[in-house]
Amino acid sequence: MSQIFTYKDNEIYSHHTIDDIPYPDDFSMHAHEWMEVFFIISGSGSYMVEGNQYPLKPNDIFIIRASEAHKLMINPEQPYERIAIHFSPLLIKLADPHLWLLRPFVERPLGQMNRFAGDDARFEKLRKAFDDFSFENVSDIRLNILGRLLMFLTALNGVYELTSIRHTPEQGLPSQLVSYVNEHLFEHISLQSIAEHFYLSQSHIRRVFHHATGSSLTEYVRIKRLLAARAMIQRGESAGAACLTCGFSDYSAFFRAYRSYFGHSPKEDSIHN
pTM value? Predict the structure, then answer.
């Protein structure tokens, strides 16, 4: 992997990266607390987002909202090059207090309308934000990246207004499974309870869910609950309240999982720390 460009601070992380030989095992299922935008320059494969599978082709753009689980299934025989912008919603709130610009991220159902195809002329304005994405001789890199991001989000909202883009497709079994898990995320949920709800065998549920998310049910639920708990703690809730609300029955187990995933204790994320 080589990085042509990278910039990172507390509210934005952007990079232009090439994997000459992309290894599929390097791209596991994950979810973040920030929003993400990816512009695909080269590569082939597919992107799994919350149970929906999208083809991945040059000039495609993907948007991922906070806590939206995704996994790249990359073809190792072709180089994978992309430009990415990861950003905190707080960054946009300064310029857009009502977060109007984030509607295409937060209003759509999980795992739907994530891809804007590179061969679709309607999305040309989206791609312009990534033209000449190099800031070697720029004095204020952050300001320039933010300008590109705002340009992209403004164009994205124009696209979002198109009823054909906002149409929600019929969900297949993988999407239904992921939706069901998210609807009952903080309840007692297991392969058995899901299998009983869908009148299917546990082995079939396990197989379909893993293919849809790239993860086991246990790992998927753990990550989603931890992200939700951290958001609560950062809003001022106690770690104990976040533990119980987000479906963890044992605080010691919650504490260990939190430290393992985020690299620090819940207390360090508390505004009262």
Answer: 0.87
